[in-house]
Automatic annotation (TrEMBL):
Residues in Zn(2)-C6 fungal-type domain copies: 8-36
SUPFAM superfamilies to which the protein is assigned, alphabetical: Zn2/Cys6 DNA-binding domain (SSF57701)
One function term, GO molecular function aspect: DNA-binding transcription factor activity, RNA polymerase II-specific
Recorded superkingdom: Eukaryota
Lineage of the species this protein comes from: Eukaryota, Fungi, Dikarya, Ascomycota, Pezizomycotina
InterPro entries assigned to the protein according to its UniProt record, in alphabetical order: Fun_TF, Transcr_Regulatory_Proteins, Zn2-C6_fun-type_DNA-bd_sf, Zn2Cys6_DnaBD
Family matches, as PANTHER family: ASPERCRYPTIN BIOSYNTHESIS CLUSTER-SPECIFIC TRANSCRIPTION REGULATOR ATNN-RELATED, HYPOTHETICAL CONSERVED PROTEIN (EUROFUNG)-RELATED
CDD domains: GAL4
Record keywords, A-Z: DNA-binding, Metal-binding, Nucleus, Transcription, Transcription regulation, Zinc
Entry protein name: Fungal-specific transcription factor domain-containing protein
Record Pfam families: Fungal_trans_2, Zn_clus
Length: 523
């Protein structure tokens, strides 16, 4: 005979009905087609009313009992209640914010579910929740707040526990998912060497889990985080170009017969950007390497044209919704401007690409407007967002109006995107502008044109040269010899300081390196 609901599953207890207490799921829930939320430990003192309130607050994916107890056999304690609040921050803020530009089922679905069954992943999500809270407080500029130190301590404690529990994990797919969370934690903490260790581990695990039906999503997220590391490449832990894997499985996804959603479109585009940057950076000095590099670039360009053609078909089927469509256009324009500039030649070659830079800024502004929320929160993402394209525009475009617009926007954003801080990027751009003899403009800036609707077919046929509403007429250009060719950064996150090495242009027509200058900024 079924027992009373006081010792039954969570679902039956809340509903005040008898439970047969079958494990792992009671038959009453299965028969009525309800989700059985599992069982609390036998010594649990949680009342039915407390249980109902907790379930309403959590709204978790998967058995509620897992979230309420963290691990089977443990009772709820004050520290566990704090843990639940941190998990809630990750679930309600960090994951949705990360997926606000491009859909990301990994953060909003897969990792959440895994957290309820794997202690290592659970603690990793708690660390991310604590770091999100720390970021929120630090960005308010209301003076010192002791809670920043509290959340920093919680983040470090949970990161350490995640690393400890990771030693018991054996499944490569679950370890891969955990490694992505660990990469994100160390990115936000500014531990660049540890982040590189986790990325390297992720690549190794991806090979071990090859063929696993669930590994595809995690592999795509690894590629996005790897692109982030490639673009940041902090001097204390520079990106290992020579050992960078080709991530063939993700490339195969890009070469699918058709694009079916924006998540696939974005991942494919990020893969192209990553391949281009790797090919551009690893160009060798010998003729054989130059030939190989040219072949790589030819393949990349052909894949880009194919991607543009498939995007035209995809969006003709009515898929043009914001903000994912604008995110795709933002990174597509970034890739196109880098291809158009080519690797060699004087740095003044970037001046001819003003229309591309204006389009990048217009896309970023449109994207931010499309994702604005009524809550006065400082946004955060674990993946690449608007900062990387804006930083490229602020560094490479020498038009003072557009450059000033980029720096103002970055300063205003207070965004944190993985390794990238918008205010730090703004100050590096501002220092670059100063080194090159320019001054950030004050007062009202002239408007720029909205994002031009350029058909994907036109891009694929090579018939596009984005037009700018701004002009070089009457604007003094930065002389070649005064331009910064490369910028190396050494970032100390806790001190909010960036030490800079500027490698200047030599002033010749082929774009060789000139003198080196050392500067620093705080943000």
């Amino acid at each position: 005979m079924p027992r009373k609901s006081g010792t039954g599953c969570v679902t039956c207890r809340i509903r005040r009905v008898k439970c047969d207490e079958a494990k792992p799921c009671c038959q009453r829930c299965i028969t009525s087609k309800r989700q059985c939320d599992g069982y609390l430990p036998g010594d649990s003192t949680v009342t039915r009313r407390q249980l109902a309130d907790a379930v309403r607050e959590l709204g978790v994916i998967g058995p509620v009992s897992k979230a309420l107890t963290q691990y089977p056999g443990q009772r709820l304690s004050p520290s566990q209640v704090d843990s639940l609040s941190l998990f809630d921050v990750f679930r309600k803020l960090t994951a949705p914010s990360t997926a606000s530009f491009l859909p990301s089922n990994f953060w909003t679905g897969e990792l959440l579910q895994l957290a309820h069954s794997e202690p290592a992943v659970w603690h990793a999500t708690l660390a991310l929740g604590a770091l999100h809270q720390k970021h929120e407080l630090a960005s308010q500029e209301s003076g010192p707040d002791h809670r920043v130190d509290v959340f920093s301590r919680l983040a470090n404690q949970n990161y350490a526990q995640a690393m400890t529990h990771a030693q018991a994990l054996r499944d490569p797919h679950r370890l891969l998912s955990l490694s992505l969370a660990l990469v994100s934690i160390t990115n936000m903490m500014g531990r660049w060497s540890e982040s590189q260790v986790h990325i390297t581990a992720g690549h190794r695990l991806m090979l071990q889990a090859k063929g696993h039906p669930a590994v595809k999503l995690a592999a795509e997220m690894l590629m996005r985080l790897d692109l982030q590391a490639l673009t940041f490449s902090e001097s204390s832990a520079p990106y290992p170009y020579a050992d960078a894997p080709d991530m063939t499985d993700v490339t195969k996804c890009m070469r699918a017969a058709a694009i079916e959603n924006y998540e696939q479109a974005g991942t494919s585009l990020f893969s192209l950007v990553r391949r281009f940057l790797l090919a551009d950076e690893t160009l060798g000095m010998c003729s054989e390497a130059q030939v190989q590099e040219k072949l790589m670039m030819r393949d990349i360009l052909q894949d880009l044209v194919d991607w543009e053609f498939k995007m035209a078909i995809f969006e003709k089927n009515g898929q043009t919704g914001e903000p994912a469509a604008m995110s795709v256009r933002l990174y597509h324009t970034l890739l196109r401007v880098m291809i158009a500039a080519r690797r060699f030649g004087p740095d003044t070659r970037w001046d001819d690409l003003l229309g591309y830079f204006e389009r990048i800024v217009a896309c970023a502004e449109s994207l931010l407007l499309a994702t604005v929320t009524p809550e006065p929160r400082s946004p955060l993402s674990l993946e690449p967002g608007v900062i990387i394209p804006l930083f490229v525009a602020g560094s490479r475009c020498r038009h003072p109006v557009l450059r000033s617009r980029v720096i103002r926007l970055l300063r205003r954003l207070k965004r944190h995107e993985g390794m990238w801080f918008s205010d730090g990027a703004a100050e590096v751009c501002a220092k670059t502008m100063q080194i090159e003899g320019q001054t950030i403009l004050t007062g009202d800036l002239p408007p720029i044109a909205p994002v031009q609707d350029i058909p994907w077919e036109a891009w694929s046929m090579g018939r596009v040269q984005p037009q700018a509403s701004l002009s070089w007429e009457g604007v003094e250009r930065v002389p070649e010899i005064m331009r910064v060719r490369e910028t190396l950064v050494l970032v100390t996150t806790e001190q909010r300081r960036v030490d800079l090495t500027f490698i200047m242009c030599s002033g010749d027509d082929i774009g060789t390196y000139g003198e080196t200058r050392f500067e620093s900024v705080t943000y």
